[in-house]
What we know:
The structure is a homodimer. By secondary structure, the first copy, chain A, is of the alpha+beta class. Chain A folds into 2 domains: 117 residues, CATH 3.30.1330.10; 158 residues, Phosphoribosyl-aminoimidazole Synthetase, Chain A, domain 2 (Alpha-Beta Complex), CATH 3.90.650. Chain A contains 11 helices and 12 strands. The two termini of chain A are 37 Å apart. Strand 2 of chain A pairs antiparallel with strand 1 of chain B.
Amino acid sequence: MRPERELIDLIREIISKDPEELLELGRDDASARKLAGGIYVFNTDMVAETTDLLPGMSLKQFARKCVVSNFSDLAAKGARPLFFMASAGLSRDMSDDDFLSLIEGLEEGSREFGAYFVGGDLGESRELMIAGFAVGRIEKRLVKRSGARPGDVVFTTGWFGLTWLAFQHLLRGMDLPADVRVEAIKAAYEPVARIREGITASAYASSSIDSSDGLYWSLEELSKASGHGFLVERIPLHPAVELLASKGRVDPVEATFHGGEEYEIVFSVPRDRADILQEEFTKKGLFLIKIGKVVEERGVFLELNGEIEEVEEGGWEHFKSRG
Amino acid sequence: MRPERELIDLIREIISKDPEELLELGRDDASARKLAGGIYVFNTDMVAETTDLLPGMSLKQFARKCVVSNFSDLAAKGARPLFFMASAGLSRDMSDDDFLSLIEGLEEGSREFGAYFVGGDLGESRELMIAGFAVGRIEKRLVKRSGARPGDVVFTTGWFGLTWLAFQHLLRGMDLPADVRVEAIKAAYEPVARIREGITASAYASSSIDSSDGLYWSLEELSKASGHGFLVERIPLHPAVELLASKGRVDPVEATFHGGEEYEIVFSVPRDRADILQEEFTKKGLFLIKIGKVVEERGVFLELNGEIEEVEEGGWEHFKSRG
Lengths: 323, 323
């Protein structure tokens, strides 16, 4: 590994200059900008080798995932990402190529969602890790986790189960048909942050969260914050996973609720705003699935074959083993 | 280690609520606030066990140091810290007490400098690390590293050499008189961010940096950014270290220039503003040492016994060994 100051010179060569930045990366080691008055959202999320670098995943994808995970949190609140910083802990023997792949992941991940990577800090670590920091600005309304009311309609911006399937394949050797494998691995390696969806939803949503820890935890957090419950009436299982479930190879409840890292937005909307929200998503060409409703009683529930059951705890949580 | 959600409940019990915060820590996992128009500074700096947890240092001091290192960067730019976030990589077998010590360090470190700790992210890591993220607001003027002009007067907000001495003692077994040892270790374990000094200086400074990587690197960075050089005419060696140097036990140039983590602010001021700056520091009871001046030729120079020499490269840099 080269000395830190040479690494910073490498970074300077590949990153786009943020027109709002008042300092120069590699000269000053902070970011400064003039902000207009308004509501801003700040988020930090880290990725670490042990828990986030999946088998076969490139370092560029690993770094990009750190950006996505931060931007996804901003989107769930109704914020548009403005810029991204990172502190990276690197091993002493990392190659220049690997280092540049990491930086490219941060740079391209930020640009992909309309934001800029503006630098950060480099340090030595036995564990490869990137702590990202994202700043966004609220466009319409700040949406919290706590506002769901009984009767509200519950939506998500995408299917679930594909990353769960990828984890089964990559970490537990589950055999998959080639086309499903390709699609599942892409979902796990290159997740997408739902920025436009989050901002569009924020005009109507009573509560919102991103599903990085799995659908169960997303609904449980919304339930805990609001004091009400969430009843899933339609399992939003990805069609490719559904097919495997229909053959008895996959438990559809497990795959839908207890996966994680889908980075979809899960939100509630007052019943009388649900139609106009759906109309706006359709007009903008954005994907949306209605999955259920908010109920009085605290908890996460599933209506299956006419019967209502409480979904058991599960999904991704640090310091507990997966699923 | 408890599951992440229980740890967050522990955090909620000990942190002060930022009156500006629009979200609730542990319910929403981001920070949101209404900002008035103005210039804001954003900084990220990490601490890691291998490089920053000194022998005998408590986890609370380790965490507090992460706050100081971030706030020091803000202060050097002329910004007052508003709030602090952190992503922490923790080992699976960390005890509750150790975890709470870390959080107390972040909380008390933030409060000590008038800011708030508003949360972040927890993850698993083989290396204990904390990536801090600090946001501050410019009070008077944003000061960059690049503005020094020949003839400008160069100041620092404190002495150098005490942390260098602590490193020699803690890492290399150098024997020290008891009173010096206590003072040196305190400087290394509990550094201070020079917030008031940085903001006061910002009204006059042509360039500014914090000295976290040692005085040599601070001056070299200011030199590189401005294209001019820095001539040190008075070595700002701490009196206790000076005493050891006078006995031939310490190289005063090495101790002054090639230590690090003093977190003093090093800055240049146009000659015709130097008097008023000194007057203002004195009025506010803030410490200041005039150490030299800016010269035409790029580099870091030292005038010693009437002769001018170029100071050789050195100080703390990641991916190079110390000293």
